[in-house]
Backbone:
């Protein structure tokens, strides 16, 4: 698969876009693809980013980085409404200047402080149940690869498809390596991943919370909406996709009633 | 070779022979009024051919006057067991399991008899210093009951005290909460709810609506999961049931009994079963229980008004009218103690209410499929449940021999709308639109598709955390119709609003009842026609 060997500008070998060895011997075994933010964890891309910016080598650099990020907030909000890929590019630009060592050093802490705490009750069960069926379990996220590697280990998943920062001279440039994992691109990456392993996507499952992931959900035989936003919920109901609630605690009675309407 | 044209309905009518019998088995003559059938949540009038039989339900049995006293009497004078109070000691751990929303149908007018039984039991436990009490709703692989449904069944006082920490729905897919009890001599795995297994005393509070419920089924099915259910909920066992309502001739009951006996040996269980009469309809609708020939002018006018109103209302409103009106059931018996001794009394009471003696089988069985089944309380009767009601429950409403001869025809009335509750019946949709087009053969389905489908992680999460039926359930619903499917020659639907759903279910369609009769009677000299006038519940005690 092309993105796996995509070198960065400084010539170092890029961190593979997909982790988890192809299992050609088990091609009959389907896979389960999980979006992460909002699906398995209640956090989103902003939370770990904030964690990194708030944990710079000294408070002045943290304040400066946070101020720069805040200043870019309106552009990001606008981009989020128009193009998820552009939003990712703007968001990860705030990592510019952070050393590669520091990114990795803080990854364990970020996982504990942000991601693990945000795991929905039931998320681990869902992953384990998929593994128990013999599925390969792949996390497909716009989050950064070093965080996803750790989440994969924590959940016992088998691989991930995630974003990678460009690193030059040991520092993040603030740019993302292509392809950027977001929106329709996720669907293309899933197809390539499956083609490489000769896995029939018709037998695969995909889980997401967001309407922006409809392309990814649409390429598998068993799409499933998890904690869906309103637009995805309506689509899921129309096509009789299963709808799972892992976020029961924060739902309103009005939302419950609305969802029971025929 | 020439094929004789099917006889017209008038020819069939002329050939039909009248037969006499029990007063509740009414033979149609030329002066008979049209009969009323349910077609989902609409009411239709049909003209049965002269000589046809119409089997009516028995009148509701007299209800107990003082239910609380009856409960206390049963607990103090149990069958085959020491009194409940003698089993209690301070500090012991007690689990109370109770039936779910699938009984009674429709839901019972408050207070539900389970609330009354629980109230008396909880007082008794408290009086004996038993503080560690949990209530589990024995849903098996049915959907979880909602908070509102639980409140309706147990009452506000118990609900506010126990829900949601000590009053919970059983979760058959929580591996940590299931415990292996053992294996029967036939290799049937008995795995039950861990809290029930590890309790010092398990009390099972059951409301027995039909003879196939209660007894060993309460614990061995209600608190079990897929591993245990697959021992008997499979097409081979279902084919060997004549009928589900006669435990002595049901392989399903026999298997459940083996598993239940194993559970009874391993656990300390005390059963409390209640029986109710068949008063499904309150005042204003009681005429639906009666022979149409005996209706008063007022009742006929009320029926016409009701049928007209229903025909003009949108589907959702009709559904709401029927689902929102609880039934004024009367409690006819409370029995407590050892499982089999209790259930014997329960069965006596059930049969006394439901059985109507019938001489001889028919060639054609006519049925209206009503709006409700055990699996669509507070939702719609989807196409798979139409099949369950027709070939599953209604076909099986007999003891002795089936009401219809081997190879005979069932004519049923239902719109068969392609409509599902997308939460409760989420896995049903895929089953109907993906599995049924591949095969109608239950054996093939069981072998090729069941396990893969039943372990679908998405549907299992919907069952565990939402209010969906377990993904094995649609398969069981198909198997439920297996005995009927094997016995019947054909099934003809009248009033279907589409052709493809009946075709998916293996049914033929007719535009009218006379057309269905003509189709069914083709090739028969004088087909004998019998209609089961239900609801309310009626069972035929058939002598072939």
Residues:
């Amino acid at each position: 698969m092309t993105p796996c060997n995509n070198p960065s500008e400084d010539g170092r070998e890029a961190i593979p876009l997909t982790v988890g060895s192809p299992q050609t011997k088990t091609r009959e075994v389907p896979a389960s693809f999980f979006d992460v933010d909002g699906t398995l964890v209640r956090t989103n891309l902003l939370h770990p980013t904030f964690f990194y910016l708030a944990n710079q080598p000294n408070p002045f650099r943290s304040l400066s980085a946070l101020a720069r990020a805040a200043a870019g907030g309106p552009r990001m909000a606008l981009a989020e409404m128009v193009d998820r890929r552009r939003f990712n590019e703007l968001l990860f630009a705030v990592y510019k200047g952070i050393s590669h060592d520091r990114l990795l050093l803080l990854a364990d802490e970020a996982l504990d402080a942000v991601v693990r705490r945000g795991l929905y009750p039931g998320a681990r069960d869902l992953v384990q149940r998929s593994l128990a069926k013999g599925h390969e379990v792949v996390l497909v996220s716009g989050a950064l690869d070093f965080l996803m590697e750790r989440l994969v280990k924590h959940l016992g998943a088998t691989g991930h498809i995630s974003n990678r920062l460009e690193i030059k001279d040991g520092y993040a440039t603030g740019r993302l390596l292509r392809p950027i994992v977001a929106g329709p691109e996720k669907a293309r990456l899933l197809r390539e991943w499956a083609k490489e392993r000769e896995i029939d996507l018709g037998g695969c499952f995909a889980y997401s919370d967001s309407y922006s992931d409809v392309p990814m959900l649409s390429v598998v035989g068993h799409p499933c909406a998890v904690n869906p936003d309103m637009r995805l919920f309506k689509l899921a109901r129309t096509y009789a996709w299963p709808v799972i609630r892992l976020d029961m605690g924060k739902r309103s009675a009005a939302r419950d009633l609305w969802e029971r309407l025929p | 070779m020439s094929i004789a044209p099917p006889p017209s309905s008038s020819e069939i009518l002329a050939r039909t022979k009248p037969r006499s019998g029990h007063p509740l088995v009414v033979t149609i003559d030329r002066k008979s009024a049209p009969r009323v059938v349910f077609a989902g949540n609409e009411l239709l009038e049909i003209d049965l051919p002269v000589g046809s039989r119409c089997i009516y339900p028995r009148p509701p049995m007299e209800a107990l006057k003082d239910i609380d006293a009856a409960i206390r009497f049963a607990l103090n004078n149990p069958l085959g067991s020491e009194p409940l109070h003698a089993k209690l000691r301070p500090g012991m751990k007690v689990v109370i399991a109770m039936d779910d929303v699938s009984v009674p149908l429709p839901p019972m007018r408050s207070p539900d008899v389970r609330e009354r039984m629980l109230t008396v039991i909880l007082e008794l436990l408290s009086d004996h210093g038993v503080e560690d009490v949990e209530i589990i709703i024995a849903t098996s692989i049915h959907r979880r009951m909602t908070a509102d449904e639980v409140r309706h069944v147990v009452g506000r006082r118990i609900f506010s005290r126990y829900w949601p920490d000590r009053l919970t729905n059983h979760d058959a897919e929580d591996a940590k909460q299931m415990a292996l009890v053992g294996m029967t001599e036939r290799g049937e795995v008995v795995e039950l709810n861990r809290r029930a297994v590890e309790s010092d005393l398990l009390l099972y509070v059951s409301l027995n609506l039909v003879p196939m419920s209660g007894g060993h089924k309460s614990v061995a099915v209600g608190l079990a999961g897929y591993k245990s259910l697959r021992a008997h909920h499979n097409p081979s066992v279902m084919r060997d049931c004549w009928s589900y309502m006669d435990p002595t001739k049901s392989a399903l009951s026999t298997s459940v009994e083996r598993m239940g006996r194993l559970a009874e040996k391993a656990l300390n269980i005390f059963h409390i079963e209640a029986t109710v009469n068949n008063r499904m309809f309150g005042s204003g609708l009681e005429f639906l229980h009666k022979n149409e020939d005996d209706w008063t002018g007022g009742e006929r006018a009320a029926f016409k008004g009701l049928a007209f109103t229903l025909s003009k209302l949108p589907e959702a409103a009709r559904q709401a009218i029927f689902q929102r009106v609880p039934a004024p059931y009367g409690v006819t018996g409370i029995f407590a103690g050892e499982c089999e001794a209790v259930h014997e009394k329960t069965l006596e009471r059930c049969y006394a209410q439901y059985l109507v003696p019938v001489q001889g089988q028919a060639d054609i069985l006519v049925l209206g499929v009503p709006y409700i089944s055990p699996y669509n309380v507070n939702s719609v009767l989807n196409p798979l449940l139409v099949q369950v009601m027709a070939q599953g429950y209604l076909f099986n409403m007999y003891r002795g021999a089936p009401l219809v001869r081997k190879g005979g025809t069932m004519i049923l009335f239902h719109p068969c709308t392609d409509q599902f509750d997308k939460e409760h019946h989420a896995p049903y949709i895929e089953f109907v639109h993906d599995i049924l087009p591949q095969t109608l053969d239950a054996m093939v389905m069981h072998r090729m598709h069941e396990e893969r489908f039943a372990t679908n992680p998405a549907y299992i999460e919907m069952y565990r955390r939402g209010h969906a039926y377990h993904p094995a359930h649609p398969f069981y619903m198909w198997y439920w119709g297996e005995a009927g499917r094997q016995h019947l020659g054909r099934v003809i639907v009248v009033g279907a609003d589409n052709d493809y759903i009946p075709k998916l279910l293996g049914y033929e369609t007719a535009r009218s009842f006379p057309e269905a009769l003509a189709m069914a009677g083709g090739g028969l000299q004088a087909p004998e026609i019998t209609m089961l006038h239900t609801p309310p519940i009626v069972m035929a005690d058939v002598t072939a």
Chain B has 23 helices and 20 strands.
